[in-house]
Amino acid sequence: MDYIITFLVGGAICALTQILLDKTKLMPGRVMVILVCLGALLGAVGVYEPFSKWAGAGANVPLTGFGNSLFQGIKKSVDQEGFIGIFKGGFSASAVGISAALIFSYIASWFFEPKMKS
């Protein structure tokens, strides 16, 4: 049942995002920023944590999960280090995920022929 919930929640988030892209004139970059900010905002009000425990990877993998991860890192760092944690927390919380994305995309470029968009 966990797999079904994860699939449905992740699919719903992606479907709503696609509808937002199709029905508005928002550029994809702006929609991505909206998703990250929405995840951080929902984490700040305490809604995202119980939601992500229930939905699993369906809530953690999309960009809303990334926004929540940034918020949780900043919150933890501010609790430990004070004001300077505002600047350090997001980097320490998301560094592994960002590094993995860069490394795996570089490895993928060895197997495929990346081209510049013309």
TrEMBL record:
<protein>
    <submittedName>
        <fullName>Putative membrane protein</fullName>
    </submittedName>
</protein>
<dbReference type="Pfam" id="PF03862">
    <property type="entry name" value="SpoVAC_SpoVAEB"/>
</dbReference>
<keyword id="KW-0472">Membrane</keyword>
<keyword id="KW-1133">Transmembrane helix</keyword>
<keyword id="KW-0812">Transmembrane</keyword>
<dbReference type="InterPro" id="IPR005562">
    <property type="entry name" value="SpoVA"/>
</dbReference>
<dbReference type="InterPro" id="IPR014204">
    <property type="entry name" value="Spore_V_AE"/>
</dbReference>
<feature type="transmembrane region" description="Helical">
    <location>
        <begin position="31"/>
        <end position="48"/>
    </location>
</feature>
<feature type="transmembrane region" description="Helical">
    <location>
        <begin position="91"/>
        <end position="112"/>
    </location>
</feature>
